[in-house]
Design goal:
The chain has 143 residues and is an alpha+beta fold. It has one domain. The chain has a six-stranded antiparallel sheet.
Length: 143
């Protein structure tokens, strides 16, 4: 895995707030999305957390739709294969044809904001899936 990108949560000038996708991709062998993210500090004190999200589950289907929406907003030449945080407010998108689009290179501020909005929704789905996974691993309380 990549080293997490340090994010100063006390920095008033930061461009995105946790949860923040550090990377996300569909792993065909696992039939799941693999995600690492910077969690909201109220969720976890770790710098990053990771989660597998089954592609056929509700969250996986939502993430697929949102990744497709990103491809549309980016006017991508092929589907988005990987999303990764490059630091500060920049994100990278590897397409399945191995080309790369960086958010900082995108010319339209309006579309850039729409992309940030979609990334935030994806980040929330990932964090929610992490919480669900964590909850399912806890022993149930018995009377």
């Amino acid at each position: 895995m990549n080293d997490p990108i340090p994010i100063d949560l006390n920095d008033e000038g930061r461009l995105v707030d946790p949860p923040i996708i550090d990377f996300l991709y569909l792993e065909p062998a696992l039939h799941a999305y693999v995600a690492e993210f910077v969690p909201d500090p109220q969720i976890s004190s770790e710098r990053t957390e990771a989660v597998y999200i089954p592609q056929d589950g509700d969250d996986g289907r939502h993430i697929k739709e949102l990744v497709e929406e990103l491809g549309h907003l980016l006017r991508a030449s092929s589907p988005v294969g990987r999303i990764f945080h490059k630091g500060s407010g920049n994100f990278g998108f590897y397409l399945r044809d191995n080309s790369l689009i960086e958010l900082h290179d995108f010319p339209s501020p309006t579309v850039t904001q729409e992309i940030y909005d979609v990334l935030q929704v994806i980040s929330n789905f990932v964090q929610f899936a992490f919480l669900e996974e964590k909850k399912s691993q806890q022993p149930s309380a018995r009377p």
